[in-house]
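With this grant's support, the team has encoded backbone shapes as discrete tokens. A representative record is reproduced below.
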Amino acid sequence: MPEFPTGAFLASLPSVAAGLVLLLALTFAVAVRQSRHSVIDTVWGLGFVVVAAISWLLSAGHGGDGRRLLMLALVAVWGIRLALHIGVRARGGHEDPRYVDLLSSAPGSRNIYALRKVYLPQGVILFFVSLTVQVGMFSTGSLGWLAWLGVLLWVVGFVFETVGDWQLEQFKADPARRGTVLNTGLWRYTRHPNYFGDAAVWTGLFLVAAESWPGVLTVLSPALMIWLLAGKSGKPLTEKAMSARPGYREYVESTSGFLPLPPRRPRGAGRAGGQQPGGR
């Protein structure tokens, strides 16, 4: 197997960073114009597409063509789908309450504070998580069973994320279900099918990269993404916001918090079975 082109990879990093800085600068300009910094959520998925595209161009003649094209396609499909979903959901809306709470404590300029507390951290996280893709683009060698296992895991994650988002949107569109808790479809097996899907997607991308040295060294990239989803800004914040909703405690008791598992019987349920929450 040819050696990893370390020089070419290191030379690509400034270009990737510059692409992300440009994307975030444009996003910031739009956010200031609209007085809505939550637009960065729409750009989150596109940032990974930008990284994949730049890395794909700069790795030509260095990395294995099959792996390069596969990673570009997987990241592009995931990132564009996510951006469209969030963009349509937020279209014409107001500032996300999370950003209202965060920026309300700004000691000076709200926009400068957003640069430090929102754009800079997200840019750094995006760059670090995408190292799996960047290294994978320059990795040599043909695709083998581990890469195709990664593709299978990516497909599982993409289905969970896409179907979970669709089921949630359909649920929210029904006025009769307002104020209740979604516990059907994929939401019957995990309280966060979309976050689990994200985690599976990035674990799958890691497996595609890890098949060829030194892709295995990027294991901290998907690990950071999973930690953010399950332990930091994804699951905990969502469940904190949902905790006061009627039926949510019973839903937590009966449904897996992250990994899809068969529903549990809620504590305190009668022999014939207790009342189940009606959806989220």
Summary: Residues 6-34 form the longest helix (29 residues). The CA atoms of residues 102 and 117 lie 8 Å apart.
